[in-house]
Amino acid sequence: MADVGSIDILSEIQAIVSDKLQVVSYKWLSRNFTVSSNDAKRLLLEFVGKHGSGLEVVYTLSGWLKNDPPVYHIRLVSGLKLAGQIIWSIMKYFYFNFSIYFF
């Protein structure tokens, strides 16, 4: 269950995204509402779960590619494109530990 602070932040995110058409990242959310990065990610995940159908969600995929020599790779992928690909098909290009974040 979400606490009162989380509910207030979620309503603020709704106002920022719908009224001001501002891009919200977990880093921005963490700095502006003085919450940890992990809490900001959790809040964005909760927000996208409730309002995701009307949003353009962009994910960052980052990690070491299985190249010789290995190269660190960062890629922005739209939520629709990511949903169309199975996560396992993406994993074959990266070493086991890679990150997925969304904005």
UniProtKB/TrEMBL annotation:
InterPro entries: POLD3 (IPR019038), POLD3_sf (IPR041913). One of its GO terms (cellular component) is delta DNA polymerase complex. One of its GO terms (molecular function) is DNA-directed DNA polymerase activity. It is found in: Nucleus. Coiled coil: none annotated. GO terms for biological process: DNA strand elongation involved in DNA replication; DNA synthesis involved in UV-damage excision repair; nucleotide-excision repair, DNA gap filling. Keywords: DNA replication, Nucleus. The keyword Acetylation does not apply. It holds the Pfam family CDC27. This is DNA polymerase delta subunit 3. It comes from Protea cynaroides.
